[in-house]
Amino acid sequence: MKAFFYLVLAVLCSSFSFAQDDTGATLGVSQTEALGDFLVDAEGMTLYLFIKDTENTSNCYDDCASSWPPLLTEGEATVGEGLDTSLLGTTKRTDGTVQVTYGGWPLYYWVKDEAPGDTTGQDVGEVWYVVSPAGEAVQEGAEDSGS
Question: Residue 145: helix, strand or coil by DSSP?
């Protein structure tokens, strides 16, 4: 009976993992007074662009990607209200994973953002910026916790 329980549990877990693999990233919009509207993921975590990237190509790997994890997707990415589907895309990273792009910019998280709406990555090194719904770097506004 115990073996049967573990078999059922394993099947359920593998089915759950399979279902998760088919889900794509979803982009939305958040706002702060200092920065205006900017892109977030489905959980409200702020997304950033790296101005040293080139169109649809990430230049952030290794230590950079440890601090600035890419927004990856295994399914089709989608956008919420207020965003332009034509600006949404993906790019293949050197490790074979697929990173979401918007306006040609690969999108990233900042490891020091702890809660939805945090924007502590804004203007880090004068190369990391939140992304406007128009697909451009928001270079106005100071660092803001957004919380």
Answer: coil
**Which class for 66: exposed (0-12), middle (13-18), buried (19 or more C-beta within 10 A)?**
exposed
Task: Convert the pLDDT of each residue in 29-45 to its tens digit.
Answer: 999 999 999 999 999 99
Boundaries of domain holding 29: 2-130
Q: Rounded mean pLDDT of the chain?
A: 85
Nearest to 34 by CA among 147, 132, 144: 144
Distance, in Å, from the CA atom of 138 to the CA atom of 32, rounded to the nearest integer, reads: 12
Q: How many domains, in total, are found in the chain?
A: 1
Task: Confirm whether 139 is domain-assigned.
Answer: no
Quick: pLDDT tens for 65-104.
999 999 999 999 999 999 999 999 999 999 999 999 999 9
In a domain, 142, yes or no: no
